[in-house]
Amino acid sequence: MRGKRIGSGAALLAGTLAVTGLALAPSAAAVTPTTATVTANCGLFGGGAATLTATQSGTSATLKLSSTAITAPIAIGANSITSTLTMANSTGSARVFTGTVNPAMAVGDPIVVGPLGGTVAAGDGLDLYQGSLKMVVFGITVTCTATGPQSPGPFVFD
Questions:
Q1: How many other CB atoms are found less than 10 A from the CB of residue 128?
Q2: DSSP one-letter code for 105
Q3: Residue 19: what pLDDT?
Q4: Is 28 exposed, middle or buried (0-12, 13-18, 19+ CB in 10 A)?
Q5: Residue 66 domain-assigned (yes or no)
Q6: Domain that residue 92 falls in
Q7: Is residue 39 part of a domain?
Q8: Pick from 3-12, 39-48, 81-90, 113-122: least confident
């Protein structure tokens, strides 16, 4: 009988520890929404609707911009655009995302940059409106600015 009580006690203890571990485990950080659209003007690259995609892992986040309306005026090699994406932050200082990640693009191809890495804090509300995307291609700087707020709204980070 004593063996059954020890076995039952051990099982109860293991179950309690498992539940406690789940309760204390950190929750996965999430950004909401994960995609947003914005209308941007990019000078010689053109202008129009662009899609921003956001991901978050703790205080690290990435943003990617793609647009079929904004196109490459020249052939661009993979990972040859130096991009700086500055996002206006409703809770304080702007957040900056940087990188040199882009696919190869032929003349007229849609522009895609990112994912660009940066740091965020819980509660940050980031919007490209009143921020900018600067791309340096073959020594030429192209700056994109949003003509209005993102839809459905700013990226809010946990």
A1: 27
A2: B
A3: 39
A4: exposed
A5: yes
A6: 31-157
A7: yes
A8: 3-12
Q: Which comes out higher in pLDDT, residue 127 or 73?
A: 127
Assess if residue 12 is contained within a domain: no
The answer to whether 146 and 133 are in contact (CB under 8 A) is no
Based on the structure, what is the number of domains in the chain?
Answer: 1
Reply yes or no on whether the pLDDT at 10 is more than 90.
no
Question: Is 77 part of any domain?
Answer: yes
CA dihedral sign, ordered 44, 140, 146, 34? positive
Selection from 138, 133, 141 nearest residue 75 by Cα: 138
Amino acid at 114: G
CA gap 158, 30 in Å, rounded = 6
Place of tokens 């702007």: 94
Q: What is the pLDDT of residue 11?
A: 43
